[in-house]
Design goal:
homotetramer, 4 helices, about 0% strand, Methane Monooxygenase Hydroxylase, Chain G, domain 1, mainly alpha
């Protein structure tokens, strides 16, 4: 993660950022995620580029069907696209853990409990596909 | 390829089809897949429609990133798209087993052995994603 | 599917065997699987040995918990055992496809349709874990 | 989480516990995990009980092979056991995130970075099975 610049300006830099939390009374508890900066913010362009590549793979699959490519070769491409999506999800999750869950840890036990439950449900959904 | 006509008029309609096999000397062993008709032929339009929907989901993911949607909500959509792809792959595999593997079974033990190995490797790739 | 001719020449022995089918009136249609010989029969000892190794890994996990091993190291072992189980399932499936599905192909389109549906549901269950 | 007893004795009770970290100079940074208490400590008995059930399922699989049970029925049981193992791993991971990763967040950006990378690799291994 090359978040060096944004990290230099705040005491809560370590906590990173997350979305969906309300600003709290204690100014020391105001973190990037209170400002609406997401865990994936610094990587947004790279993420979108990655998704465009996956989108291209899905279009490639449609062409393969049109051109009557052999089933097994199509299945290989399906697995490659699935892997690409899973891998993208994993990176998003890593950034979420680094920023949002860490953020919650600074705020207190209730906040972390909620965020960890939420992240675990997301991991479960990734595993069940 | 539109195999609709061939579905109505021939004894081999039930056997479906597969790709990549060479016509053999014995006329009784000539099946649709020798004619280059694939297992997924009858469902081609439905498959392409399905892939277009997944393509739309991938574009939706890009919009979510642009609009700074919460990481966990993006992950939920990633899992939905992954599931859609896996499910598409599973249907393709079912048609492949029904047509190509069944076709091979008619041809003899060497043919079935090769096709089953190939299908198992494809299932393994699906499991490893 | 024109499987009638290939059924008459005794070549169906190669198709191996499968379980659950009732012997039929036509003696030429009696295959190993009608005799209650399963797809995995020839590998039974190797399979049981493999499962014993996985059983040992599960006991190893219990010891790791008792000995307060670090969570991540336990998770690594959990993944190894899961992979071992999946891999065992995949081998069983390959033998099933080779013997039972091939067997069904020799019997006719209805038989293969039923077996392929059944196998696909099993693959789906493997994917959903 | 019923961590009441062990939580009563420390200011950092909320952070939970983790293994493998060295006690640091700053007394305020001493957490349960510095004391060698793991994320899964409070659930240890439940975890071992759960693994014993999975061990029983693996033995059940061996019996099914011995008794020549139909391949597909064995595969169903393989999937159930795999699911049980994945589910156990997921619970372990949740506890790890709640205690160890939260612990690291309190310690600082380098600690959290290391723990999040480690947890992500573990999740990746779970996904790749």
């Amino acid at each position: 993660m090359s978040t060096t610049d944004s990290e230099t300006d705040g005491a809560t830099a370590a906590a990173g950022s997350c979305h969906g939390a309300e600003p709290q009374g204690d100014p020391q508890a105001v973190t990037n995620h209170d400002l609406g900066i997401h865990g994936y913010a610094h990587q947004k362009d790279a993420h979108i580029k990655r998704l465009r590549r996956i989108e291209g793979q899905i279009r490639g699959l449609q062409r393969m069907l049109e051109e009557d490519v052999y089933c097994i070769d199509i299945l290989t491409q399906v697995s490659a696209s699935t892997k690409g999506l899973q891998s993208f999800g994993l990176q998003l999750l890593e950034e979420h853990l680094r920023h949002c869950v860490a953020d919650a840890a600074v705020k207190g036990p209730e906040a972390i409990d909620e965020k960890v439950k939420e992240a675990t449900r997301a991991i479960e959904r990734m595993l069940r596909t």
